[in-house]
Write a structure and sequence with these properties.
Layout: E1 5-10, H1 20-31, E2 37-42, H2 47-53, E3 58-65, E4 75-78, H3 96-105, E5 113-120, H4 133-159
Parallel strand pairs: 1-2, 1-3, 3-5
Antiparallel strand pairs: 4-5
Helix pairs in contact: 1-4, 2-3
Length: 165
């Protein structure tokens, strides 16, 4: 049986900063104490991401973004409800907004709560397993942020649980 909360790091650790979401989730998992949260990682996006989300009450996706609107290494939340179906949070075909919209329209068990924690990246196109310095420096604080969000998601999920037992 799945836990109510999923923390999902996505990216490609072979491309400099692109693995930062995965690295932060790995660190958060190693420091997590307690039950109720699954920690996974994936190198997919769009529709391929959807099957990872199904069956959870709440999901936190952690990945890098390149917006140019903030400094590399900064972390920020992206409102997944505001993602229009045409906007791609990743460049793997259909975006997260489209995948969530289609999943809901098909009455799949899409989580009620999906949050996206982004780490601003500076280099996701060059091969290399070591992130740039500002992104590498952000991994520990982002892991702390992941743990805080996971605890809140778990508390919220348990308070709305209609469990029988």
């Amino acid at each position: 049986m799945k836990n109510p909360v999923l923390i999902l790091g996505i990216g490609n650790p072979l491309f400099t900063d692109d693995g930062a979401g995965i690295y932060a989730v790995r660190l958060a998992k190693s420091r997590w104490t307690g039950d109720g949260v699954d920690f996974h990682e994936a190198e997919v996006g769009g529709f391929d991401l959807l099957h990872h989300l199904l069956g959870y009450q709440a999901v936190l996706i952690v990945d890098v973004a390149v917006t140019g609107l903030t400094e590399p290494g900064d972390s920020y939340m992206i409102d997944t409800d505001a993602l229009p179906p045409s906007l791609s949070a990743r460049s793997f075909g259909a975006g997260l907004g489209t995948a969530l919209s289609v999943g809901r329209s098909l009455n799949l068990k899409v989580p009620e709560r999906v949050e996206f924690l982004a780490i601003e990246a500076s280099d996701i196109s060059h091969a290399g397993e070591i992130p740039t310095t500002p992104v590498a420096d952000a991994i520990r604080p982002v892991a702390d942020q992941i743990i805080r969000i996971a605890r809140q998601m778990l508390t919220d999920a348990m308070s709305t649980c209609t469990c029988v037992g």
